[in-house]
């Protein structure tokens, strides 16, 4: 019997799900729901912040000068490479074009309901079977709800759209300009200002470098070990923030400096507002349960989530996750019992806590991603991600740590499934 599958989102993960579902018309009939008028998800740059033209929260966190922090040679879906040749580190416009080309190549547009808001997703449970009621409406006619039933739902709505705001003493009294990195668009607004970027993960590092082009002074504030790389002369590292005063910041080392602006590069929250209580999904301290392999709902195996994991090489992992989910849906992969899956999930979580990681890193992979990806391919019996992806990813990770200002000037070429080589600089 052909299964009807709803895909929520038309970004990279949603397009990947559609590509593999529609390649098996004898098994699946797919429909994707996308709030925007085009594919691309977070890669759609807009100058808007706050609300869009339809009064909805702006989804994208792209800024004008963003270039990828991974080379395109490792970013690609395994079955759809980027165009060869430099540069390796590309603009958000080029990534968006790649996703549009992917959608055209695999003829995906015909399966997508654009400018559509998913209002609710609710399980309808019968005897040994669960179907899914999806209620949705047009963006411009929100009182015109429609209802459809599906055999499975694949959630691909991303996790870079709902900002996570920290509690900072004195924030309400600070007279300067404060935004979350979600709303950062261009450095010109910070010309000749003293700016603090709070947070030194990828976005904090990249945005501080971008602002340094115009700002008088940038303080990269964080509680991690200080970066060992050379930084621009007007970028200095400081500990985390102890508190704010009207025109200044006090860092955790008690140093006080006057500043004009604060950018909160403090991450994002997972959000699935369309899932009803019956879906039995819990989010506590940015840990989502009950998910087996960060992917499959252990109570409802026909509800899955692509792209939950953090600090990863995303598009190749989406490819592996989607293939794993489809193996579950078509019955070629038999999952363990719910008890075994929940135990496996809890053991993974407790191991992270024992290693000193905070609860909010329950879905952070980093170096764990390669064994995770291989585990998916081994269980579902499909070809693993080529080893060269890990080799180049790990090389870039090391190179970035030591050459943050210049690592994007290099270009790379994949030689085969195991090896790569650097090629001429684009400067």
From TrEMBL:
Protein EC: 1.-.-.-
Signal peptide: none
InterPro entries linked to this entry: FAD/NAD-bd_sf (IPR036188), Flavin_mOase (IPR000960), Flavin_mOase-like (IPR020946), FMO-like (IPR050346)
Keyword flag Oxidoreductase: yes
Coiled-coil spans in chain: none
SUPFAM superfamilies linked to this entry: FAD/NAD(P)-binding domain
Cofactor: FAD
Transmembrane intervals: none
Enzyme class: oxidoreductase
Single GO molecular function: NADP binding
Presence of the UniProt keyword Repeat in the record: no
Keyword field: FAD, Flavoprotein, Monooxygenase, NADP, Oxidoreductase
Similarity-based family: Belongs to the FMO family.
The protein's name: Flavin-containing monooxygenase
